[in-house]
């Protein structure tokens, strides 16, 4: 994990297994998330791969093949918990998809708030091609991005799509041509993170909370959740600073309080 100037980066670097989600790797991700959850200096988290050409290849099927049925069930539940922990981070999260994001790898990206992909990246919930089904949140998060019909088609067929197709479906926020270094999506993700950084941190957190919780309930309940989040923001120093900066015609200096 790397952190600088309010942007924390979770660097996935398991080259021999194409960043597949094995037990040790998952434990390391849990540890990184635990540190980030309570770091008030962090305002945006970017997930990126240090392995060229791959974001995350999904579950470690070689490791999985050595598990009995009970162990598989327990580990898949742990993967689901990992994705829930990513989704529950209080600050915005961005997945920089510069290569393959398959199965659990795409589910990891779906757990992030925003996704940026290279046009050459390959994405898919390919579990049905292995006799499986998405088990780490994919059946729930993918329909919220692309709609129920497209989600069913992608899951039923196990089809892989590229970054441009993902953009047209609404699966990613931005797509960019890949560069010679192989990190075009990461560079675009950093630009996006830097757009978020100057905004009021507490207001951004409350906005994320209102959206996430509101999506789980009917619109009337969602409006009530929005109202509660807004009420928490009213007494903040950042709101007062924002109003003062507007009156004085200057850029605001937010501190996250």
From TrEMBL:
GO cellular component labels: mitochondrion
SUPFAM superfamilies: ClpP/crotonase (SSF52096)
Pfam (any one): ECH_1
GO terms for MF: enoyl-CoA hydratase activity; RNA binding
Keyword Mitochondrion among record annotations: yes
Primary location group: mitochondrion
Subcellular location: Mitochondrion
Keywords: Acetylation, Lyase, Mitochondrion, Transit peptide
Biological process terms in GO annotation: fatty acid beta-oxidation
Protein family: Belongs to the enoyl-CoA hydratase/isomerase family.
Protein name: Enoyl-CoA hydratase domain-containing protein 2, mitochondrial
Protein's organism: Mycteria americana (Wood stork)
